[in-house]
Amino acid sequence: MSDVWSLDPRTGRRVQLVAASTSVSRADAAAEAAMGVAGELVRSGRAARALLLRRIAAVVEQRGEKLLEVADRETALGSHRLTGELARTAGQLRLFADVVEDGSYQEAVVTAARTDVEPPVPDLRRMLVPLGPVAVFGAGNFPFAFSVLGGDTTAALAAGCPVVVKCHPGHPETSVLMLEAWRQAAAETGAPEDAVQLVFGTDAGRRLVEHPRIRAVCFTGSLAVGRELHHLAAGRPDPIPFYGELAGVNPLIVTPGAAQQRAEEIGRGAAASFTLNGGQFCTKPGLLFVPAGPDGDRLVAAAAAHVAEMTPVVMLTAQTRRTYQAGLEALLSHPRVTAVARVADPASGRSDPDYEGGCLATAALLEVSLSDLDRSMLRECFGPAAIVVRYESASRMIDGLAGLEGALAAAVHSTEDETELTAAITEAVLPKVGRVVYNGYPTGVAVTAAMTHGGPWPAASNALHSSVGPSAIRRFLRPVTYQNAPQGVVPEELRDRISSRR
Questions:
Q1: Which residue in 375, 369, 362 sits closest to 314, CA to CA?
Q2: What is the pLDDT of residues 303-338, one digit of tens each?
Q3: CA separation for the pair 92, 382 (Å, rounded)
Q4: Mean per-residue pLDDT, 471-499
Q5: What burial class does residue 100 get, using C-beta atoms within 10 Å of its C-beta: 0-12 exposed, 13-18 middle, 19+ buried?
Q6: Which of 44, 335, 420, 450 has its CA 20 to 30 A from that of 27?
Q7: Helix axes of 24-43 and 202-210: crossing angle, nearest 10 degrees
Q8: CA 352 to the chain's CA centroid
Q9: Residue-by-residue DSSP string for 242-254
């Protein structure tokens, strides 16, 4: 087994030994323990689970100072960003507590028996029930909101499903601190401690996906790893759902009218969006469709000026930086791609042994004509880079949108006078994305009932679901119908006191 170290991406140095990688046998034990408490979690009832979720939120907030300190040291995301993320994490815990208390997520439906029709209709009572233990893979770019007690874990617990979390190697100490917060909340509410567990290492993660006790898998990360885990989940003797939020290139489309009216504003805004937190948001705009001509030139110049003024950013991990650099170099080597703005690589020529190749990276703005856009430019380059795609006419731009792959979001900048064009762009991108943003930027996801954070492949492995918002609970539930069942057998929500019948 290998050691799990907490690293500082600002220096590349090891800071603390956190744990040893989890053995396969220990991963097996975690899955079995999760199954062992699954019934208890369900039987505790919705009121108890709502209380638990609210208590987790309170404990996380109480421990906030230490959590923020360690998370910033492990991710270099900065106090402001992480403070907002911690608040989001507590907020979504409380939101799901409200969802659980309300109970409508269970979709309880009762059809009364009828003997006056042919054929007769039996007494039918249907509702959604928990799938069972869930494996959650923590995300590197969201150490709170998509990690140990993040949205996937929260939705699973709300549904009544225990969780085994595979810790992300980029923030192991933060993950351990979040697990401690869970244990405190569980002890204070009487919840089973094994309803949330943590494992470390690639082998343990793979084993969770294959373990027969695990009934669903959530993963946020790269397309390559997501595809591997998807195949493992589908290749089991009993295939299980794999909910992956993977990789996509989110388009931002600027119409001729918008470029004429707001070129500099949109250019600066787009650059700020795709470089935010080192471009390490899955919702960053990676393709900027900009009209050819003077208005588009002004927009690109404003974006290039923003990029040129940036200092090097610290990426989440050295591996994240290497992957970004490889993707950027591949784009730059394309004969049709032009670098509009790029700062020299800060790692070039360094010999500092503590730097270890470093986690520093620089932003880049590239450009290509729409006619030269090809599939090699449609792969996600996770980091502070974007490609400007110059188009000669709106009709050709709309035709070009048809060739895009699945993405989480698209942004459309247009004017009030371009209603028909805006509608045509919307029609073109709607089959490709889960969210369309108008006159704004896709970075930033509100945790509400109306949010969709998902999309067609490769943005997500299942376009039917969102990983953000109350609807995320649906991933961990399945429908069951009780036919002519005794009152003492059916869940409380389906007993005769329920007045809503169909």
A1: 362
A2: 999 999 999 999 999 999 999 999 999 999 999 999
A3: 26
A4: 91
A5: buried
A6: 44
A7: 50
A8: 35
A9: EEEE----EEEEE
Q: Indicate whether 502 pLDDT > 90.
A: no
pLDDT number for residue 347: 58
Residue tagged active-site, from 282, 359, 367, 381: 282
- Cis-peptide, bond into residue 239, ω within 30° of zero: no
Q: How far is CA 82 from CA 89, 103, 153, 154, in A?
A: 10, 32, 19, 19
Residue in the block written with tokens 């700020």: 272
How far is the C-alpha of 483 from the C-alpha of 143, rounded, in Å? 45
CA distance 404 to 289: 12
- In the chain, how long is the greatest CA-to-CA distance? 86
Q: How far, in Å, CA of 317 to CA of 198, rounded?
A: 21
Q: Which CATH class is domain 250-438?
A: alpha beta
Across the beta sheet with 196-199, the strand order is 196-199, 163-166, 134-137, 216-220, 242-245
Structure tokens at 395: 């009709």
- pTM equals 0.94
DSSP 195: G
Contacts of residue 230, Cβ cutoff 8 Å, sequence gap at least 6: 242, 244, 461
Q: How many CB atoms lie within 10 A of CB 75?
A: 30
| Tokens coding 52 | 């638990």
Mean pLDDT calculated for residue range 448-462: 96
Name the strand (E) or helix (H) holding 306.
helix 294-308
Residue 67 has pLDDT above 70, yes or no: yes
The confidence band for 497, taking pLDDT boundaries of 50, 70 and 90, is confident
Residue 161 is a catalytic residue: no
Query: Active-site residue 245, yes or no?
Result: yes
With 0-12 / 13-18 / 19 or more C-beta atoms within 10 angstroms meaning exposed / middle / buried, residue 388 is buried
Equal CATH topology for 20-105+132-246+460-479 and 250-438: no
Domains of the chain, by residue range, sit at 20-105+132-246+460-479, 250-438
Instruction: Please name the amino acid found at residue 357.
Output: G
Pick the catalytic residue: 74, 85, 245, 418? 245
Superfamily of domain 20-105+132-246+460-479: Aldehyde Dehydrogenase; Chain A, domain 1 (3.40.605.10)
390-419: string of b/e by CB count within 10 Å (b at 16+)? bbeebeebbebbeebbbbbbbbbbbbeebe
Nearest CA-CA partner of 260 in 414, 373, 117: 414
Q: Which amino acid is at 46?
A: R
Residue 472 CA: distances (Å) to CA of 94, 198, 476: 14, 21, 8
